[in-house]
Amino acid sequence: MPGTPPDTPRSAVPDLSARENLRVSRAVPADRAGRTTTGTALPEGAVEVRRSSRRRRTVTAYRESGRTVVLIPAAFSPAEEQRWVAQMVAKLQTREERRRRSIGGDDELMVRARALSAAHLDGVPQPASVRWVDNQNRRWGSCTPADRTIRLSSRLRAMPEYVVDYVLVHELAHLVEPSHDARFWSLVARYPRAERARGFLEGVELGSAHGASPSGDDDLVD
């Protein structure tokens, strides 16, 4: 699964699953398990609004633990909150759908993996199957060298294409070298945007832990 080279600190991986339900939870801080500070569990697909006194003019939305989190300024009125939650959820859904179409389904993923193998790994790793899965909430990707199968978390559908490509290269490299040794990382490093993609994924993890936007996208309030 994608990670960082040896001796680099690792962070817990957040769940960024995309669910399309617009039930709104009031602005109560939540922990990583998707529960409010009162101990009430938030349903998957809910929209959680988090108010921040540090925000003045920005609104952000992102996926976390099966729900949508919308960060808004603490000074917003209920009407402003309702308007911006609807706007940001719609924008997030549109962005994710656009990326989903560009990345495609399992067949397109296989074509993409073979092209990356040829471009960066001399065509050596040849996967038997590459597919999206919805049950990987702690890993971005995984592979089984014995049967040459690769699985990518559907959470990646909401991320830039170069990040998806990095995860594919990472898993393809495991078909050549199963362990995370120096040879493995030298193979992964052949992908030109490997370092940038790792930084993006680390930002997702850290951003989720601290209540920031994993995508880094903020939208100015009119």
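[next item in queue]
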Amino acid sequence: MFSKFGFGQRLEAILLSQIYPLESYLVDGQPEVRIRRGRNSGKPTKRYLSQRRFQKALGVAPTLESSGDRHRQVIGGSDLCRKALWQWVFTRVEPKRSRLKNEVGEKLGRQLDVEKLAGRPARLIRMRIAAKATKILFKELITEMCNPRVLE
């Protein structure tokens, strides 16, 4: 599973130490998704709660903290995971010569290139790519759990 992302053994160990057991992010064996009315449109919108908890554990989900007139974003979760994911983006996704030659590498690399051309700050781009990678990882892990392949 982790080989699609080219994480390496140390990063795999760091990520596994934070997300194990994966069942803690599920409700009745499925990811928790709640449908609520949107604030502005009033239309039903999906809230992917399990995915958000997963990202929070890995340190890539910002949280808004406010008190009175003060509003600030605080990033919770594991600092070690956040730094390790940032380094992974910096070394495996950003340089074109060392990008993964699969759909995950192409998708993340394409988004990184588009955001660089738009002139966004490099630190912001790297964290957005790490967050996108964790979303893809969550989806892959859930798919693997719900449809396990038999090892021969």
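[queue empty]
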